[in-house]
Amino acid sequence: MVAAPQREPVTAYVGLGANLGAAAQAVTAAIEAIGRVPDTVVTGRSSMYRSAPVDASGPDYINAVVEVRTLLAAPRLLSELQAIELAAGRERPYRNAPRTLDLDLLLYGAGRIDSPMLTLPHPRMAQRAFVLLPLAEIAPQRVSALSLAAITSQVIARMEPAADD
Question: Which fold has domain 10-156?
Fold first, then answer.
């Protein structure tokens, strides 16, 4: 019997955000939950950032980006992320509604996908300081200086780490 070829791990990046309830705790819990996704390991984690909502209203968001190494295909990884959102009480009453947790698959290796379910790279990430600044912190090679210059007018601040970090 010939063994099936072993799939190589892929490096992917996930954007996290929350602006309802205990947002910082929700982001921290989501990072821990991502670390429990099958065949997936969190290999990098940005600082948390506080940002004003973009194209939305409501309280400020708490955002971060994590790097993962995964054996999961991109659609399966997205499904796992959506399950984490649901477990955190995520509802989708309307586009850009305030949320208890938002997890976005930003990049999946060098992969490009354009389907009704998933578009990679994430189609609006280059327009969002709350994605680019944390991504640049953990993967500077993935963010161009031109992209960073384009988002300088957006209100965002890196949060100080908690005393027990």
Answer: Alpha-Beta Plaits (3.30.70)
